[in-house]
Amino acid sequence: MPLLTTIHENRRAQIVLGLLVGIVFGIFLQKGGVTNYSVIVNQLLLTDFTVMKLMLSAVIVAMIGFHVLKHYGYVHLHAAKGSIGANVIGGLIFGIGFALLGFCPGTVAGAVGSGAMDALFGGMAGIVIGTGIFAEIYPRLKTGLLKQGPFPAVTVQEFLHLPLWIMIAIMEVAMIGFLVVLYYLGF
């Protein structure tokens, strides 16, 4: 773990590593086709499941990888407390932007990287404007609406009181099963 400790303590290494991971992530999004406006819109219309298939494939691999790294002490799980108010506000902001533009923050960055002008002028401008608006109203929201309906920091496994690897197996089978169903339905 000395390498990980070195990276954790070196801000420049974190920035470079984050940039490299972001570039690779953008390449995967672009190669997977999810930086294409029509693919995103058709996912929202439930006629093209490319986005869901790509994301589920990533979650299937990452879930096992994360827990293997956790088992060997390379990463630590820390679930965050939440609230219904914060989730509703966050979901509305994300959903409105997603529905209006056809991109989420990750896919808009990938689309800009592949030269999509609508993502550059609509998406990046929307991110900047939306962030500015949220930053302006956040002080009023943080003590009121965002705190409504708090819930504890509990993982699905803790909530269901199941052993970790049983929960992982159930989730993996469910996600793979869903992908198989999509395949047989012609999506």
Task: Describe the structure in your own words.
The chain is an all-alpha fold and 187 residues long. It has two domains: 1-32, no CATH class; 33-184, no CATH class. It has helices at 2-9, 11-32, 37-44, 50-71, 84-101, 105-113, 117-141, 156-160, 164-184, and strands spanning 82-83, 150-151. Strands 1-2 form a two-stranded antiparallel ribbon. Helix 2 packs across helix 6 and helix 4 runs antiparallel to helix 9 (164-184). The longest helix has 25 residues, at 117-141. The N and C termini lie far apart (43 Å). The mean pLDDT is 86.
Present the secondary structure layout.
Elements: H1 2-9, H2 11-32, H3 37-44, H4 50-71, E1 82-83, H5 84-101, H6 105-113, H7 117-141, E2 150-151, H8 156-160, H9 164-184
Antiparallel strand pairs: 1-2
Helix pairs in contact: 2-6, 4-9, 6-7
Count of individual helical segments: 9
Question: Which percent bin holds the helix content?
Answer: over 70%
Radius of gyration: 19 Å
Give the CA-CA distance, first to last residue: 43 Å
Q: Approximately how much beta-strand content do the residues carry?
A: under 5%
From the spread of the alpha carbons, the general shape counts as globular
The overall pLDDT, averaged over residues, is: 86
Number of strands: 2
Number of domains: 2
Strand ordering within the main sheet: 1-2
Oligomer: single chain
Give the H and E element order: HHHHEHHHEHH
In the predicted model, the low-confidence regions spanning at least 5 consecutive residues are none
